[in-house]
Each structure stands twice: as C-alpha cells, then as structure tokens.
Amino acid sequence: MRATFPHMGKLDMVMSDLFDRTGIGYIVPPRTTTKTLQLGVRYAPEFACLPLKVTIGNFIEALEAGADTLLMAGGVGPCRFGYYAQIQECVIKEAGYDFDMIILEPPGAGYRLFINTLKKLAPGKSILEIWQIIKIGFGKARVLDELEKYALKYRAYEVKRGDTTKAYKRALEIMRPAITADEIAQAREEAFLVLEAVEKDMQRPCLKMGIIGEFYVLLEPFVNFDIEEYLGNMGVSLERSVYLTDWIGPSKENPIMGISDKEVAQAAKPYLNHFVGGEGLPSVGHTVIYAKEGFDGVLHLFPFTCMPDIIAKSILPQISRDFDLPTLSLVIDEQTGKAGVITRLEAFIDLLANKRKQKEFGKSPVLVG
Amino acid sequence: MRGFLGVDVGSVSTNLVVIDEYGSVISLIYRRTQGQPISAVQQGLKELQKDLTPDIKIAGVGTTGSARYLSGVIVGADIVKNEITAHAIAASHVAPQVRTVLEIGGQDSKIILLRDGIVVDFAMNTVCAAGTGSFLDHQAARLGIPIEEFGSYALNATVPCQIAGRCSVFAESDMIHKQQMGYRMEDIIYGLCQALVRNYLNNLAKGKDLSSPIVFQGGVAANAGMKRAFEEALQMEIVIPEHYHVMGAIGAALLAKGTVRNGETRFKGFSVSSIDYRTRSFHCKGCENNCEIVKIQVDGKTLACWGGRCGKWEVQNPEEADLLVQASTTSSVM
After folding, report:
1. pLDDT digits (tens, 9 = 90+) for A188-225
2. Interface of A with B (CB under 8 A)
3. Within this chain, do residues A211 and A356 fall inside the same structural domain, yes or no?
4. Confidence check: pLDDT of B167 > 80
5. CATH assignment at residue A239
6. Nearest-neighbour CA in chain A from B322: distance (Å)
C-alpha cells in the first residue's frame, strides 16, 4: 500500500510520523501550488467549497506520483465536509484514476467502524498498540502546534523581519526525527530554545488580533495567502481559534490548544445556542472570548459558500457592537485575488491602530496612517 | 508656499490633487487611467505642473488606489496607503462629524463607518461589481446618453421602473426588456439607480448601523439619480462634498502632510513625467508556484518588483530590487 492524504498546514508532518510508526508505505503529495488548485477546480463541482477543490488537486498529484490509497477524514455534521471523501472518490475515479479510498469517520459515526478503519491503517497491530501510537503521535503533533502558537504570537515583535519564520522552520525540523516520548520531550526543549532565541522588541506597540473561521482555510497557508505571516510582518500579534490537534483530536471537555469546546459554546450562548456544523459555533464563541480578553480586533476567514461560517458572519456585527470590537470577514475561493485581501487587511490594521491610539490619547481625532 | 500632492490611481480614473497647509485644494486633475497607470500619472503630473503657480513647492506626496505601489515608485511617495483609509481621512476632513461614508468608484464600492473621527467598520464589494461606475458608463453609452446627463434624466422620472439589480448582466437585459415594452427612458434610468442602491445596501451595509451625517463620494456621486435613490432608501439627507470625485487623492495628500511634517520629501519632481518607465513581467522559478513577477525598469535598471506569493520580490529600496533581479538573471533561473 502506498497511502496518501491531502495537505493542510503541518498535517503532512503528523501523517508521515504516524505512517512511520504503523509501518505503512506512503507518499506525501507534492506541495500545494496554483497547479494543484487548477486541477481541483477542473474536476470539482463549481459551487463546492475551496477545501474540496484543493484536496482533489492534492490527491490527483499524489496519484500521479504513485500513490494507490487515498486517506480522507469523514464527518457527521451539517457541514458538507462530511461527505467530501465520498465525492472525492467519485470525482477522481471518473477522472480515470484507480485507487482504494479509506475514509476515517469520527468515532461519533460508529465506534466499530472507527476501530476497523484504524486496523486497516495499522495492519497486524493490536488495539492497545494502535492506541499507543495515536497517543504518542498526537502528543508530538501537539508540540508542533505549541511551536506554531508561539510563532504566531511573537512574530510581530521580532527585531529582524523573517527571523521567526526561519526559527520556526528549524524548530519543526528538530521535532521531525523524534520518536520516543523522551526524544519528543528533549526535541521540544531544543525547538523552543531556537524560537526563544529570536531577538524580540517587547516594547513595540503591537496590535493583538484573533483569527477565527473555517479550519481548512485557517490551517492551510496556501489558500489563505500566508495571511498569518503577512500580519505578523505588519506588526500584529496573533491568536488562532483552531490548531491542527484541536481538529484531529475530538475533545469536548479538555482544552487542547487553549479553549475547550465547552467554554466556547458557553461564551457563544447569548448569540447562538446550538451546533450549526463546521466552525459556526466556535467562530461565534471565540469572538466573544477574544472580545472579553481585550483583543484589538478579530479577523474571520471562510471559503465561499461555507454555510456554518455564513451563519457566524451574520452574528458577528452584533458581537462587534456589544463589545466595541472591530471584526472583518473575508471570503476566500479560487477567484479571490491577493491584492483585494491585502487592501482590506491594510485598512483593517489602520482601523485597529487608530482605535487603540484614540483609547490611549482620549477622544481627539487622529490623522494617522 | 508648501503644497502636498495626493495621487489616486484607480481602475477607471487617475486623480492628482495638490492641497495647501490647511488642507484646501489648490489644484486638481481628473483623467482616465485607460489601462495605462504609468502614463496616466505622467500626463497628470504634466498638467498639474502647468496649473500650479511657481511659488508652490511640493513638500510631500501620498499615493493610493489599486496602483498605489506602482505610482508610489514613480512619483517617489512619502506614504503609500490603501484607498479605504484614504477615503475615510478625506471625508472626515471635509465633514468632521461624518459617521457614514458611501463611496462608489469605477470598479469598487465601499462603505466606511466613522465615530469621533476614526474608522470603526468598513466593507468593500467582493463578489460583485454591479452598480459601480463602469457599469453606469456602459449603460449610458448603450442608451446613447452622455454619462454627465445620466443623473438629470433620472431626476425627471415620474413612475420609476422596477429593474432587477442583483447582477449587472441581468440588470441590462431587464432594462432592454423594459425599453422594448415602451417604458420612458427617464423612468428606466431612475429604476436602475434604485436597483443599484438596493444592491449596494444588500451587499455592503447588511447589519451595519448607517447614521447621519452621511457623505457620498467617488465618481458615481456625480449622478444625482443615485443620490436621490440613496436618500429615498435610507430616509436620510446625503451630503456630497465639493471634490467628491477626487476624495481618495485628497486623503492621500492629507496623509502625506501628516507624514512629512518638517522632514524631507521623497518626491522625485515633475521631471519624472518624461522618464521612460518600462514594466516587464516574468515567471519566478523559485518554486512550483511559478508566480508572475512584474518589474519596473528605467534604462535597464530595476526600481521595484512585486507579484509573488512569498514576498521575496517586494523589497524596500530600488538597489535591493535591482540586485535581486540581476541575481536571478545571472543564475539563469528566469
């Protein structure tokens, strides 16, 4: 078997690590590029959302490179993502490719199905062994997220532009070979030392912005035009609502990278009191939490035609008024131009900076850019 | 006397404005971009130079609009600013109490909300350009009416037609249909204005608190029919500033005035209007993305480049840009 999977931020690193542990042959799809997107757009239905288009492109490029088994996550929510694996199978087979499809449905869709799929992915391993592999692999993935979270927060303060990005890449490379729990712990320490060694100017008056929205658009830098690096370079310190392990590891009670689902739902309650699929509810909840924590603003990203985040978008203006918190919603798809995104971000940063100055210096109107 | 230059290069028009120390307009040039931003700026500068009295010395320059980086390189801008901020600053300069700015330009439309002189919210059209200047231009041409008279036709409407305004293509077919049914031209034109206002409010103003004073600016504010349609839809009075069509440039000039203060300007002088700027594009071979990079050159020397996803071509000064381009040529990766 030569398994493959779609790209989504650091997912390739986590998946390679897991496959190395289970002993399955795999191929990492070529990096997502405009060519990947073009392939996806050619085969995917026009009004499907961007994640389907890009992942179809990833799969086709991986099949061309010799993969024979596609691994895709399933889902049970009202969001269309839940049946994208089935659509991918149809669409890519119709395009003339031959392959097996393994769909990893969440345990919520049936525990037995979940276990059976895991057994397919780890042939000859006992349930206990699989559990241990998941546990250690997930622990490592979590360290990767911690490193990313650190980079998002401190990039804005770096003295020399680009240092944080370089250090973050090096930190990931330090983590890559770590296998045992001890090695992971030791690599974690080294990786953090590298990030912490980046020279920072903590006196710099950086804006604090929360990024919320649909997970794929948030986690995949190719589709969001490397928005986080851009904002960091513009002097904006970031906190993001979802990290890779939040998305892979379903947990109702325990916070994974920060805020638990329960806390988010609680915060959202005055505005939205039930699950609406995808990140609709988390987007609302995180905005409220960020408002209470005194963030300067919230940036909301989602793919064109994304139902759950359209619901969140229609609620944001009310939260924005109640907490005096500026929000900006950006819709992203294959037609979105980078120039338009940059113009809006520049204006949003001006808005936040002027608002902060007004808070600090009283009510006199300030003419600054 | 010191003057501050603001340059706004948009999709349809290129505007240059010089303001004095108090922010009053001394001179303004409004011309069509016609897809050639560089020569539009150069021609604009020539006209401006003729128009200005010799005692005025340019002490600062700001650029804005979709070609703000390009024009910034050409004129030597002290500040390059997005058009949303520029429009907001100009509006609050002419109407300090302004709370809502409606702006409709050649191919984009925006809404900006201000409180106590600062921007608190904004939106810009994303998926649709129905109702912007280009479309009105096109319809005026199709009906054989000069665009300048479009508004007065609209004001003479008695029973406005209902026109489908969600999509400009369907709006056009609907207008043709109404013409063929025999409706009066005036009623059709005002019906179109109403449809475009509905489209604007649905696209940009959903969930936003539009309160007065409201300022309406951008080229489309010249259309009295649009003003009346906005007033009817919002049930509020709408103010159109004297220089409504060059507000972006005024904003850029005000920003330049705020940036330079007593320092040195980077303005390259009016002589840049006769320099032969050339733009070339090439595919960057740095990775699989194959980004199309544009470079601006004078006598084979690169002044600036942009267009890549990763940002490596967008360097701060011309020397670096030139080195970068030379390096990529000599290693034959271009």
Report:
1. 999 999 999 999 999 999 999 999 999 999 999 999 99
2. 30-31, 33-35, 225-226, 229-230, 233, 304, 314, 317-318, 320-321, 326, 330-331, 335-336, 338-340, 343-344, 346-348, 350-351, 354-355, 358, 363-369
3. yes
4. no
5. 3.40.50.11900
6. 20
Q: Are residues A349 and A211 both part of a single domain?
A: yes
Domain count, chain A: 3
* Domains along chain B with CATH numbers: 2-89+248-274 (3.30.420.40), 96-240 (3.30.420.40), 278-330 (no CATH)
Q: Which residues pair with A301 in a beta bridge?
A: A213, A330
- Residue B301 has φ and ψ, to the nearest 5°, of -100, 130
Q: Is the peptide bond before B54 cis (omega within 30 degrees of 0)?
A: no
Q: Do B85 and A320 touch (CB under 8 A)?
A: no
User: For residues B257 and B263, what is the distance between their CA atoms, to the nearest angstrom?
Assistant: 10
Look at residues A79, A108, A125 and tell me which one is the last residue of a structural domain. A125
CA-based nearest distance B206→chain A, Å: 9
**pLDDT tens, A29-67?**
999 998 999 999 999 998 899 999 999 999 999 999 999
Helix (H, G, I), strand (E, B) or coil at B48: helix
Q: Is residue A360 domain-shared with residue A305, that is, in the same domain?
A: yes
Residues A121 and A9 in one domain: yes
Query: Which domain-ending residue is among A136, A170, A202?
Result: A202
Residue B121 to residue A320, Cβ atoms within 8 A: yes
Task: Count Cβ neighbours within 10 Å for each residue of A295-330 and write b for 16 or more, e otherwise.
Answer: bbbbbbbbbbebebbbbbbebbbebbeebebbbbbb
Same domain, A86 and A30: yes
Q: Do B208 and A317 touch (CB under 8 A)?
A: yes
Residues A63 and A190 in one domain: no
pLDDT band for position A369 (50/70/90)? very low
CA A357 – CA A347 distance, rounded (Å): 15
Range of the domain at A225: 206-369
Query: With an 8 Å Cβ cutoff, is B69 touching chain A?
Result: no
Between the CA of residue B198 and those of B109, B110, B125, what are the distances in Å?
A: 13, 14, 14
Question: Residue A128, class by beta-carbon neighbours within 10 Å (0-12 exposed, 13-18 middle, 19+ buried)?
Answer: exposed
pLDDT, tens digit, for every residue of A143-180? 999 999 999 999 999 999 889 999 999 999 999 999 99
For residue A95, the domain's CATH number is: 3.40.50
Interface residue of A233, A367, A368 to substitute, partner B, most B CBs within 10 Å: A367
Whether A87 and A52 have beta carbons less than 8 Å apart is answered as yes
pLDDT score for A362: 67
Mark whether A165 and A178 lie in a shared domain.
Answer: yes
Report helix, strand or coil for B304: strand
At B310, list the tokens: 């990763």
Q: Are residues A166 and A212 in the same domain?
A: no
The H helix count followed by the E strand count for chain A is 15, 8
Task: Give chain B's end-to-end CA distance (angstroms, integer).
Answer: 48
Q: What is the pLDDT of residue B325?
A: 81
Question: Please, what is the angle between helix A127-154 and helix A163-175, to 10°?
Answer: 170
Q: Does the distance separating the beta carbons of B255 and A317 come in below 8 Å?
A: no
A-chain CB neighbours of B96 within 8 Å are 365
